[in-house]
Write a structure and sequence with these properties.
Blueprint (H helix, E strand, L loop, with lengths): L6 E4 L7 H7 L7 E5 L10 E4 L11 E5 L16 H16 L5 E4 L4 H8 L6 H8 L6 E6 L6 E5 L9 H4 L2 H17 L7 E5 L14 H16 L2 E6 L7 H4 L4 E4 L2 H12 L4 E5 L5 E4 L16 H16 L1
Parallel strand pairs: 1-2, 1-5, 2-4, 3-4, 5-12, 7-10, 8-9, 8-10
Antiparallel strand pairs: 6-7, 6-11, 11-12
Helix pairs in contact: 2-3
Bound molecules: 1,4-dihydronicotinamide adenine dinucleotide and ligand LD2JLWAY.
Length: about 325
């Protein structure tokens, strides 16, 4: 695989499974550089420091762009002293991607609670932080699996908010934006000439004509009708419980969902090992494995690298298309 510049793999929370996934990710075949503290890598990991992203990458070792942390990493026990450095690594990677020195970024998982408690991290996750670093651009989160057939791609319109706040935050503006950003990214980043989008309702049976909720009749249906008039290929609002089995997925390329679990439960059930989280709408490429920091298994060497491998390959393909 060739790219003019490598993908940057940010270390994420060093007490999680990130550091042990980095050397395993070399199996992806994608030219990438790990950005973090090499002292956090599993003992015996062959690594070689590079100082700029134009340096040639070593064939037989993990390339590391060094970012020293104040404290060691104890698996499963995030150290508040390291929280600020986790955030700095992401910000540094974004600067390198925005300047064109990196072809994109792939982020290993952060622990949102550890960053909030340790450094007052003010964002719900990477997605919102990256959007902010890019100049407060509108973005959407998509999780994608192309190893299941038909592919499963899901976009939660509302993300990391309490379920009780979903009906208030799921606005026509937010859904309209999600449709437009997803349609554009399907064309630009995934090479689909005529993307077909399916939109889930929020209520059971998509409200069943107003007898189980009214958002679908009040505004989701009319919004979709207006977007169809503009030329978007949209189905919905669909009942969420029957839109993720294989024959249903064959009828669309991406599903726009009302809230986090409506979107993420189907994909993590179908393909937890191979799912990829990708931020659509950014001026640079960003992917991530679909899983989190997995403190329960960190440091044991058993973490599965398939998702980070899929994430690096997706970042590579997106960067090539751009
Ligand atoms: N992109 C990111 O930075 C993400 C961060 N997170 C964060 O991770 C933390 C933990 O979240 P959880 O909900 O517990 O999800 P999690 O994905 O970390 O763990 C859920 C379960 O899956 C297992 N698991 C996860 N990744 C695995 C792998 N590669 N191989 C084998 N087993 C694996 C874990 O051992 C655990 O039993 C939270 O702070 C969350 O916010 C969660 C998802 C994405
Ligand atoms: N549940 C998905 C998740 O937590 C990923 O969030 P982000 O850090 O990619 O914004």
């Amino acid at each position: 695989m060739s790219l003019r510049r490598p993908i940057l793999l940010t270390c994420g929370e060093p007490a999680g499974i990130g550091p042990e996934l980095a050397p395993k990710a070399r199996a992806s075949g994608v030219p990438f550089v790990f950005m973090g503290d090499p002292r956090h890598l599993p003992e015996g990991t062959p690594w070689a420091e590079i100082t700029t992203l134009s340096d040639p990458l070593p064939d037989d070792a993990l390339a590391v762009l060094r970012h020293d942390f104040p404290a060691p990493a104890i698996p499963g026990q995030p150290d508040p002293a390291n929280a600020a450095a986790v955030i700095e690594v992401i910000a540094r990677a974004v600067r390198l991607a925005m300047s064109g020195e990196a072809s994109g970024i792939c982020t290993l998982p952060i622990n949102k609670e550890a960053l909030k408690r340790g450094a007052g991290f003010a964002f719900p996750g990477h997605t919102e932080f990256l959007a902010h670093l890019a100049g407060d651009v509108p973005v959407v989160m998509m999780l994608a699996s192309t190893t299941v057939d038909p592919p499963c791609r899901v976009v939660p319109v509302t993300i990391h908010i309490p379920l009780s706040e979903v009906p208030r935050s799921l606005t026509p503006q937010a859904m309209d934006q999600a449709v437009r950003i997803t349609d554009a990214a399907m064309r630009r980043d995934f090479g689909l000439a005529s993307p077909r989008l399916a939109v889930a309702g929020i209520n059971p049976h998509a409200g069943e004509n107003g007898v189980m909720g009214h958002e679908e009749t009040d505004w989701i249906g009319p919004l979709l009708a207006g977007l169809r008039d503009e030329g978007f290929d949209l189905s919905g609002p669909l009942p969420a419980d029957t839109m993720f089995h294989a024959p249903a997925r064959s009828r669309y390329d991406a599903a726009i969902c009302a809230y986090h679990d409506q979107a993420l439960i189907p994909i993590k059930t179908l393909d937890f090992a191979g799912g990829v989280n990708v931020t659509l709408g950014l001026p640079f490429v960003r992917t991530s494995p679909d899983h989190g920091t997995a403190f329960d298994i960190a440091g044991k060497g058993v973490a599965d690298a398939d998702s980070v491998i899929a994430a690096l390959r997706m970042a590579h393909d997106m960067a090539e298309r751009r």
